[in-house]
Amino acid sequence: MKSFDWKVVHDATNHNAEESKSTPIYQTSAFSFSNLDDLETYFQPENERYMYSRYGNPNSDQLARKVSELEGAPAGVASSSGMSAIMAGVLSVVKPGEAVIIPEDVYGGTYDLFHQFFQEWQVEVVTASFGDLSELENKINDRVALIYTESVTNPLLRVEQVESVIEIARKHHLPVMIDNTFATPYFLKPYELGADLVIHSATKYIGGHSDVTAGVLVGDEELIARAKKKVIQLGMNISPFESWLTVRGLKTLSVRMEQQSANARAIASFMEEQPGVRVYYPKTLAAYGNGAMVSFELDERYDVHTFFKHLDWIKIVPTLAGVETTVSYPLKTSHRSLPEYLQEKLGITAGVVRMSVGLEGEKDIIHTLQAALQAAEKK
Ligand SMILES: *Cc1c(COP(=O)(O)O)cnc(C)c1O
To answer: CB 3.0 to 4.6 Å from 72: which of 109, 150, 192, 368, for a disulfide?
Structure first.
């Protein structure tokens, strides 16, 4: 068995005729056949041919295969974005008239997808506080067809009790789908813990360089075959070049996660020592690290506008997981459309800042934070 780090860098099954070191970009919408018998081979089971890029392309298949190998799942499908990967996964297990349970602190785009799109398509959406697993279990009824959650939530970085959620789902014979975007398979592999489907916004750590929008869904052969049909029918496929860029970024996942997570730990410790700062940083994700996101809440002694203004090279960017350290302001971006009672209940206040920690030296980041805190302190 090869190690995780080996699998991140190498591709066990990918070969190309010219033996080029990196996989070529198959920038083509279709593939050609030399005669009708040749065309017929495409339709044989186990064939390794391609026909039309919306149905499959070597680059998007490579991305899907790599992520499924890292997650320990037998199959995967890549798609145009994290949202389309979620869409394909949900549509492969849930039908109109059925219900889905989601956590109240789910990613904003996912919250809207369920509450706006799926409700319109007659899927009942049940929101529960997953921090209290008895509440989750009490909300299961006959119509529920899927339990959906995230391994680490945004922006306050609650670590889901993935194994307990799976246990509850098993008891009620329900499939579980997990968004593993924040944790990445470097820290957590929900499929190996028993989840049925795992999705990634590969826009984030899988790609890692803020230069693509991409998604991947992994699971067993049967579910992924169903999900892949949705990707094909709804045209949610990812382009060859974006697949290629994502695979290129993915090859450094291990070193990025190790370094960014170490930086994040140092920043969390520094911020914990500052007066009037409440730090949100996971402690239980994995024995060897807790990811590269750190959130903190500044109390009234700080002026938040001034804090952001003095972050110098640390830019406000409403995404995460790049190699550069960035910050976001959840109340006015990702969680802007949440009802006010829920913002309050979840603790997304005017003082909450979310930091995506990059690959700079930890001192660079800490010095800048220190200066911004000093400037923001009300006299
Ligand atoms: C960004 C994100 C998504 C959506 O992914 P896109 O690639 O933007 O479509 C879903 N879940 C989480 C946790 C995310 O951070």
So the answer is: 192
Residue intervals of the chain classified under CATH 3.90.1150.10 are 253-376
What's the DSSP call for residue 239? P
* Largest separation between any pair of C-alpha atoms in the chain: 81
Q: Ligand 1: which of 107, 112, 212 to mutate, judged by most atoms within 8 Å of the beta carbon?
A: 107
Q: Is CATH 3.55.50.30 the classification given to domain 253-376? A: no
- CB burial of 97-127 (b: ≥16 within 10 Å; e: otherwise) equals eebbbbbbbbbbbbbebbeeebeeeebbbbb
Residues 255-295: pLDDT tens digits?
999 999 999 999 999 999 999 999 999 999 999 999 999 99
pLDDT tens for residues 122-132?
999 999 999 99
Instruction: Give the atom of ligand 1 at the shortest distance from the alpha carbon of 85.
Output: 9
Q: How far apart are CA 70 and CA 190, in angstroms?
A: 11
150: part of which helix (H) or strand (E)?
Answer: strand 144-150
Q: What global pTM score does this model have?
A: 0.96
Delimit the CATH 3.40.640.10 region(s) of the chain: 4-250
Going from the Cα of 20 to the center of ligand 1, the distance in angstroms, rounded, reads: 33
Q: Is 235 left (phi over 0), alpha (psi -120 to 50) or beta?
A: left
154 lines ligand 1 (CB under 6 A): yes
CATH code, residues 4-250: 3.40.640.10
Cβ(181) – ligand 1 distance below 6 Å: yes
